Amino acid sequence: MANRGALMKVVEDAYKRPADKVPQFEIGDYVEVHQKILEGQKERIQVFAGTVIARRGSGLSETFTVRRIVQGEGVERTFPVHSPRIAKVVVKRHGRVRRAKLYYLRDRVGKATKLRERQETGAKASAETDNKSADNSAS
Amino acid sequence: MAIGLLGRKIGMTQVYDATGVAIPVTVLEVGPCTVLQVREPDRDGYEAVQLGFDDKPRKRATRAERGHVAVLESKRRRALLAAGITPPPKANCEPKRFIKEFRLEPGSVVKQNGHSVVRLANKLELKVGDNLTVSLFEGVPAVDVVGWTKGRGFTGVMKRWNFSGLGASHGVKRHHRAPGSLSGHATDRGNSGRMKKGKRMAGRYGNERVTIRNLAVVRVDPEHNLLVVKGAVPGPNNGYIIVRPTNKRKHVAHKYEVD
């Protein structure tokens, strides 16, 4: 008798996206979520752009929440990470954030909702620069 | 009645169907189940198969439990043999933790070379010692699942019967979760000085046998003995369950597939 977690994984893995197809983004990123919409027989892509403010859950049930302002009104949509209806997630900009849940953005209006962009020399160098700046401030 | 299988609840999760809709599912580990006994009309007065699931360490099992599944030397057995009576066959397996019987249609048990053999509708033949796996449910659109709900102990009427309780304010003092009046003087049996029988009150709640019928089969995985059904199943994770093809005539026909 195998253990419970292992059996659960067997079922979930069959429905998960392959590791290289899991959308890659971070909290605070400004993203475009491309979602497949079925209209009758036709399939089309709908794009929802905004800031990723939360990511919760684990395994197949993992979801992320994207917030944007439409006509002065805050709109949030939550997408399952592994949903086959998510065609792709395009990261447009990295935001500089210091927490995992950006619910404080809900209380902000206008210019205050903008996140400072993360300064990077290159996409891959991001981790190094982060470390360096930390070292500098320490010394 | 169709034969079912024994198993345990693994837990709940969600999966996506071919159109990308998330379905809530429960993962069940079902089988392998060993046929421990065949109940036959001559000896037992009815026809059934007794299945066992989940091994129990031998040192944890009583001698009766061990003797139920395998041949043990005993005075009684020697006496039977001496009298020329063949004792019923044994499954010759490990003692089981969870044992249940499934009743069969009359005429299902037949004798073959002195052994009782069960003939099922799908041409399947079973005898003591055989193993049944979850592949029994391949092609079955929906199942009924029997489980034992989580025991909640002694609970009040709000949790047990969904009573509304009393107000939080407006002068209510220390009776916020109370049931209120049990009976009026003029209603039910109120004016007899007694209450109506079956009045819903506080008491033991949970730990009862519950059958959930007509759960759609989402996936059968014989390799891992897994059965994935749509919807919830009574009992805690790791709790024992009984699964059988649904006896609802109008069962859910939908079959989900991995896309």
Provide an overview of this structure:
The complex is a heterodimer of chains A (139) and B (259). Chain A is an alpha+beta fold. Chain A has 2 helices and 5 strands, in the order H-E-E-E-E-E-H. Chain A has helices spanning 4-15, 126-138, and strands spanning 30-39, 42-56, 63-70, 73-80, 86-93. In chain A, strands 4-3-2-1-5 form a 5-stranded antiparallel beta sheet, with no helix packed on it. In chain A, strand 2 (42-56) and strand 3 (63-70) form a beta hairpin. Chain A is globular, with a radius of gyration of 18 Å. By secondary structure, chain B is mostly beta strands. Helices cover 9% and strands 36% of the residues of chain B. Chain B is built from 4 helices and 15 strands. Chain B has a 6-stranded antiparallel beta barrel. A 4-stranded antiparallel beta sheet of chain B has the order 5-4-3-9. A 3-stranded antiparallel beta sheet of chain B has the order 6-7-8, with no helix packed on it. In chain B, 26% of the residues are buried. Classes of the chains: A alpha+beta (139), B mainly beta (259). Chain A binds chain B through residues 1-2, 4, 7-8, 10-12, 14-15, 36, 38, 59-61, 80, 82-85, and chain B through 10-11, 13-16, 19-20, 22, 25, 27, 29, 54-55, 219, 221, 224, 226, 228, 237-238, 258-259.
